[in-house]
Amino acid sequence: MNDSKIPSWVNIIVLPLINIMFAFAFAAGIFIAVDVNPIEAAGVMVRGALGYQEGIGYTLYYATNFIFTGLAVAVAFSAGLFNIGGEGQAYMGGLGVGLACLALDSTLPFWALLPITMLASMLFGALFALIPAYLQAYRGSHIVITTIMFNFIASALMVYLLVNVLKLEGQMAPVSRVFEDSAGLPMFHEMTQWFGISFSQSPMNLSFFIALICCVLVWALLWRTRWGYAIRAMGASPSAAEYGGINYKKLIIVVMLISGALSGMMGLNEVQGYSQQLKLDFVAGYGFTGIAVCLIGRSHPIGIILASLLFGVLYQGGAELSFDYPNIDREMIQVVQALVVLFSGALALMLVKPAEKLFVFLDQKKKPLNGVKAEA
Amino acid sequence: MFESIILILDATLRVSAPLILAALAGLFSERSGIVNIALEGKMLSSAFAAAAMAAVTGSVWLGLLAGIGISVLLALIHGFASITHRGDQIVSGVAINMLAVGLTVTLGRFWFGLGGQTPALTDSSRFTAITLPGAEAVADVPVFGQFYSQLFSGHNFLVYLSLFAVPVCYWVIYKTRFGLRLRAAGENPHAVDTAGISVAWIRYRALIISGILAGIAGAYLSTAHSAGFVPNMSAGKGFIALAALIFGKWKPVPVLFGCLLFGFLDAIAIRLQGVELPLVGEIPVQAIEVLPYILTVLLLAGFIGRAVGPKAIGQPYVKSR
């Protein structure tokens, strides 16, 4: 939109913020509907998420998942591809991590295991995204529909593996064995101890920093390389990109491989960092939250970090909230999340027209003034 | 053997009914050019609303009405975002699905305090089996009698409604002026606009019809198939319906067969659980459960036939100035 009548700072910062405010206002309405004072609730959430060390640890642990899945959606989105298969790709990535740990945890210490599990998570996630990518690029099937179907395929595969293959003999729960202690990623409170600082125990672990590194890498890829330029060119206008000599089929494949790899790395945080065993449903909707994170973060790594922190606060604060209020549970946070997706994603353009009118109006008011000045 | 075939087909019909209704719901919106991945959320919300209303009032008909109402409301939100404000149809669909999962449990817990479930519905607040006329009389007639009395008789009202809906939808889509315009809006909205007809209004009406059908499908889950709402009870059925819609290439009769096929697979998966088959051994349930998804992927990729959707699907219509 080059002929936009709105200054870019309004378009990039003010309108999205107003959209989020709308989402929060509606969420507040729902809080009131279930007899919870939204202002008090917001206070409890912020205190629960940021007010003490353990809370902060949890917030950042959740944020880690969102950074990975948010980046994954963003990379694909930059190329104009809507990857809603993050859920399945993260599931597969976690499977890769789990299999690597199960095979090697008794022989390797974590620092030797980490490169292998990282590679496994990326490989499994990427390969699971490769098939929809190939089908989109070469067979013309739509990536959205294929990735939806692949989410279900991933979850069925996981149930099959856990129930029939990885489950321990004589055990009812469909979970794999717990990895050796040596295989787990260093927890944040352990890491601070290396420097003699004590920090409360939380599931926050090394993968938070891996996620931050990924943000830098994605930023460098998208804005500092030829490929990144090609990706963004394709996102802006596929036909122009093709005319400009970009092989879009190959690019679809590359972009989806990167996107799948990023989703897959979520498995590091959940499987190797937190639960240290393979379980059902460890992705728990984080793949879908990635969509919200990407939309609020406007597909930019810095935006994604900020949006991930916001959702980290919502998740951890929400958990805290459910202790204090019997009417509230994790699902309430999903409502907030859904409203955010609705207002800052689907209704993103809602305020553009009124804003345009406003600025045209302001312009007209200014012009006669300028005319007067020029005469004088 | 014959007996168990009848039983499987009977179960197929029961499992397919909500798929048929939801797939027809998708048919209307997608034929008008609006991608409808929100089917899942609409079904789930409607299932909750129907069960909640039926539990409170004791009337299954009020329940059905409440289910349809909430589903239409969601359809209007979908339309408001993707038609009026030209937002991304998929993003708004995702939002509606998330909203449904969260709201149903939150409100359910608040209203009933049963961990998100609604109270169990008794027979008067449910859709119960209807015995077709003469079913008792012909039950002993070989083959025909069994087909009629066991397979066709003894379903609830909504099963018959879902079967009845297929020819009606066919008629509306292909034989009415509204249907013609609806199809045109999904193929070439500019032509519709040029003819002086509002694309937006056509699409809104398509979404409202879609909401009504998805609402009935949802109400079926909680008030006919089960006796009450449990969290996340649609469990991917909205997406299976979407798969059946693609499988039936966006045409009512093939869509019906797509739904029956997927329903049949579901019915078989339950019966095959733990059964050793000759030659292949025991087939994991999950393998049969994912077949609809895999088949859809293969179909979309053109490996088995070709599924080409309406041309203008997914694109917001911008009136050229």
What keywords describe this structure?
heterodimer, A: 376 residues, mainly alpha, ABC transporter involved in vitamin B12 uptake, BtuC, 16 helices, 0% strand, B: 321 residues, two-stranded antiparallel ribbon, 14 helices
Number of helices of chain B: 14
Summarize the main sheet of chain B: 2 strands, antiparallel
Query: Class of chain A, according to the CATH hierarchy?
Result: Mainly Alpha
Number of domains of chain A: 1
Q: Which oligomerization state do the chains in this entry correspond to?
A: heterodimer
Task: Describe the structure in your own words.
The complex is a heterodimer of chains A (376) and B (321). By secondary structure, chain A is mainly alpha-helical. Chain A has one domain: ABC transporter involved in vitamin B12 uptake, BtuC (Orthogonal Bundle), CATH 1.10.3470. Chain A has 16 helices and no strands. Chain A has helices at 8-33, 38-50, 53-78, 86-104, 110-139, 143-166, 188-194, 207-224, 226-236, 238-243, 248-264, 266-275, 286-296, 301-324, 330-346, 352-375. In chain A, helix 3 packs parallel to helix 8 and helix 5 packs antiparallel against helix 11 (248-264). Chain B has a domain at 1-127 and 143-235. Chains A and B meet through helix 6, helix 13 and helix 15 of A and helix 3, helix 4, helix 11, helix 13 and helix 14 of B.
